[in-house]
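ok trying again, last paste got cut off:
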Amino acid sequence: MNRFSTERIESTTFDPCVSVLAMNGINWRLLQPLWNRYATDPYNWRLQLSLDRNESMMKWTVRRAGLVFAWVVLGSASALAQDPQFTQFYANPLYLNPAFAGTARCPRVVLNYRNQWPALTGTFVTTSASYDQHVDGVMGGLGLLVTNDQAGKGTLSTSTVSGIYSYQQAISRKFSMKVGFQATYFQKSLDWSKLTFGDQIDPRRGFIYNTNDVPRGGKVGNADFSAGVLGYSDIFFVGFAVHHLTQPNESLIVGDSKLPMKVTGHAGASIPLGMNGRYGEARTRISPNVLYQSQAAFKQLNLGLYVDHGPITAGVWYRTRDSFIALIGFHTDKFKFGYSYDLTTSKLTTQTAGSHEISVQLQFNCKPKRRRFRVVACPTF
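nice, full thing came through this time. structure:
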């Protein structure tokens, strides 16, 4: 589930004036102060749809309609703010947990692209780029993470820039730990020109007027802080992260709208099957994984399994009560490419066209390290 659970959508009473906000990428809590101004008289601000079978197009019937979009799709008025989520969790390690910074030791560049529910008018498109490496002088890893999220075809845009530091400490000969800290600046903006107001609608001819009721504001920026911890050996790993520790205000208009803390727990193992590789290492490995995330009312459990055979990786995930995920990837020492598809398991499957995600990782050379450097045994994707 990303941002809005399909189960929650199906079980919520449909009220177009409210629900259009959620499915078109607009956080209901961000616009709630503005909505309250229009919703003092629910009867007069209710939007109705009627379909005239004698004509080839849908007609709008309006009772002094208040704030609405030009498009209406099924949504949820109770949806809370949720971070964009990538399906290829470990192909975007710094986004998952800041403690992953520097785990590859040498310089690493990661690019990610996700298109969620492309069949809907208000699609979600999220991109990210990151750079990280281990630095002996600071006894840990340094990283830079940049993300951009476009919801409702750019109606709501969120951009972030994060600096990350992770401290590494060997606990024993077989087990190490990393503690990561992340400082972020985010900017969220709302394009009012892509919204439609009630005074723009003619009951017979549709959207033909200019609005005289454009609210003030529509942009907010703030600092944000996160932290994470990662424990790992050559075979297994376990991690924990908390994002939005200070719960910054992200209200686009007036008042406060706190960004809820996001808690992530993840664990997995890399199990070799035989020692038939070129240098005696296992050519085939299986990697069972579990990942749990919680953010306000949003709870999600992900169960997955990867199979690595030579340069090819295949994986499947099950996102509880939401979707099945299939993944295929190719990797070498310097280059990694992955593609995944989310198949929604609810009644919205045929309406959303699932979700597509692509990841690219570039690994660069660095000076050999005299002391042994333990690499995290987490999946490639």
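cool. The longest helix spans residues 28-38. The longest strand covers residues 156-170.
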